[in-house]
Amino acid sequence: MPREVRERQMMDAAVRIFGRRGYQAASMDEIAELAGVSKPLVYLYLHSKEELFTACIRRESEALLGVVAAAVEGDGPAEERLRAGVLAFFTHTAEHPDSWAVLSRQARAHGEPFATEAERMRERITGYVGQLVAAGAQGPCDSEGLAQALVGAAEALANWANGRPGVPPERAADTLMGLVWRGLGSLVPDLSKSLSTP
């Protein structure tokens, strides 16, 4: 079996174990067993539990960033692109709950170097959101601060939705857009005018 395939199997298993049991409680024995390989092979490929966890954070961050970035591409209205990105975010976190648990809770709970890896992902997502807020406003606004608030709300809402079976990504996206985008109208005059237009 090619190395990249075997390594992907190991990381898939690691994300599942880390997401469900947490970094401290997870064992390399469990990860190796779930991946169907020997523990020495896991160490040979990924060197240590810390390096394996870091690699998982990086891979899952890139996957989440990829779907959000793809969703907001294009030249459509900022509101439509933002909603597409929000929906992509909630869809991905719902379909990959172990991945989201690693990124949203485990990486931040165990300090460095893991927290820095998770923060890099958050900064990039916030950058996308800030650009869309600024484009939608078409005028002066604190797009950076508003983006921070929106991303924080999205993270909290994803945690809530994932903990309650039956909450679809569309509901989470509609809730966030209704709260945040409509609320922006009171802060950004140009956006307020566009929201009131039939």
Write a structural description.
The chain has 198 residues and is mainly alpha-helical. It contains ten helices and no strands. It starts with a helix and ends with a helix. The C terminus is likely disordered.
Average predicted confidence as pLDDT: 83
Beta fraction: under 5%
Q: How many individual helices?
A: 10
Radius of gyration: 19 Å
Largest sheet: none
User: Helix and strand string, N-terminal first?
Assistant: HHHHHHHHHH
User: Roughly how much helix do the residues carry, as a percent range?
Assistant: over 70%
Distance N to C terminus: 59 Å
Question: What's the count of strands?
Answer: 0
Draw up the topology in text:
Elements: H1 3-21, H2 28-35, H3 39-46, H4 49-72, H5 78-95, H6 97-109, H7 114-137, H8 143-162, H9 169-184, H10 189-196
Helix pairs in contact: 1-2, 1-4, 1-6, 4-5, 4-6, 4-7, 5-7, 5-8, 5-9, 6-7, 7-8, 8-9
In short:
The chain is mostly helical. The protein has helices at residues 3-21, 28-35, 39-46, 49-72, 78-95, 97-109, 114-137, 143-162, 169-184, 189-196. Helix 5 runs antiparallel to helix 9 (169-184).
Keywords:
single chain; 198 residues; mainly alpha; 10 helices; disordered C terminus
